[in-house]
Amino acid sequence: MAVKRGDIELAGLTKSYDGVHTVVQGINLKIPDGAYCCFLGPSGCGKTTILRMIAGHEDPTDGEILIGGEDVVGLPPVERGTAMMFQSYALFPHLTVRDNIAFALRIRGMSKADRYRQTDAMIEKVRLTELANRLPAQLSGGQQQRVALARAAITEPRVLLLDEPLSALDEQLRVRMRVELQRMQRELGITFVHVTHSQLEAIALADMVVVMDRGQIMQAGPARDVYATPRDRYVAEFLGGQNVFSGRVGAISGDRVSLTAPEMKAVAVPIGNSRVSQGDTVDVAVRRDDIDLVRPGLDLAADRSSLASRVLAVEYQGNFVKVMLDAIGTDEFVAYVPERTYFRDPYTIGDVVLAAWPTSLGRLLSKTTALSA
Fold first, then answer.
1. 189 and 247, same structural domain?
2. Which domain holds residue 358?
3. Domain assignment of residue 1, yes or no
């Protein structure tokens, strides 16, 4: 029997409550078969509602959900080829690891011998063989999560849905479990759709990141593209790692514009695909790890932009030092300085510096609008 595809298409997907409160607004999105897709956004942005609609635990108010080309709206969860791993894990406390994982196969009427054969193979895959006869209360948080993941995967779904699966774990265990999730997704070869509010988690795990706000998609694409080339101010600020500031366009020269404010007299930005006119107010993003700090009086290399600034705070982060500056009035402006570079000539609070970067690495941002992905 041919394996069913796990590609997902959301077409005009909308969810409203009481006909008034709309939490998902006309979403259009395609997730390829076998992708690891993370929905990322703040609480209340609609990402979990989308997950629940894909799973069949909520019905859309309007729109279509296609899995493998089949419209699944109206089908019960068991007929969609999906499985869901809940944030709480929802393990049966009175059942062993083996019986927790085998439960779905038991419900489907599979013989005891067959379900235990499949279950033991899955237990080996998630590295729980020595714990197979323990109860959930005898497991660590990470071990419980692997049981929940195995229980969801044992039904051989074409789509596995994960609702904040790492949020209950401590930082060290979250890092380990990210590796486990990636390994499991590669071995299973099925589509994972993962909901999170953690930017780092989404970027570390996903082939495809979908950034949401107020029920709409703000940007969707490969993790590196979304992080390195945010489309607008919302995405740049939400993902972090970017300095975002506004300025007024002065001169337009060839493929770049210069900004006019006194503190930005040395700032130019590539135009790229943007359409700008003299006098427009624009948003600009520069990655924090592209910022160099230069002592006053030292010459800057050609084709660099800079802002005069003062050091507000310094935080040691291990492999880099986070230097917070007052470069744009009250807006946060940060340089991530490599640790060895910083400690060759450290700064103190109040030092005057130039925050400089290659002009080619600045980016004009679009005005914040939702996408039809």
1. no
2. 242-365
3. no
Percent of the chain surpassing pLDDT 70 = 96
* pTM reported for the whole predicted model: 0.86
The CATH number for 222's domain is 3.40.50.300
Q: Based on the domain organization, do 63 and 156 belong to the same domain?
A: yes
Domain closes at, from 198, 228, 258 = 228
Rounded to the nearest angstrom, the gap between the alpha carbon of residue 35 and the centroid of all alpha carbons in its chain is 14
Task: Cite the beta strand spans of the chain per DSSP E.
Answer: 8-17, 21-31, 36-40, 62-67, 70-71, 82-85, 159-163, 191-196, 208-213, 216-222, 242-253, 256-259, 268-270, 281-287, 292-294, 304-316, 320-328, 331-338, 352-358, 363-365
Same domain for 173 and 35, yes or no, is yes
199-250: per-residue pLDDT in tens?
A: 989 999 999 999 999 999 999 999 999 999 999 999 999 988 899 998 889 8
| pLDDT computed for residue 226 by the predictor | 93
Tens digits of residue pLDDT in 271-325: 988 888 888 989 999 999 999 999 988 777 778 999 989 999 999 999 999 999 9
How many distinct structural domains can be found in the chain? 2
Determine the 3-state secondary structure of 226 from DSSP.
helix
C-alpha dihedral, 68 to 69 to 75 to 76, nearest 10°: 10
pLDDT (tens digit, 9 = 90+) per residue, 87-131?
A: 777 888 999 999 999 998 888 888 889 999 999 988 888 888 899
Q: Are 231 and 50 in contact (CB under 8 A)?
A: no
Looking at the fold, whether 204 and 65 belong to one and the same domain comes out as: yes
Question: Do 77 and 206 fall within a single domain?
Answer: yes
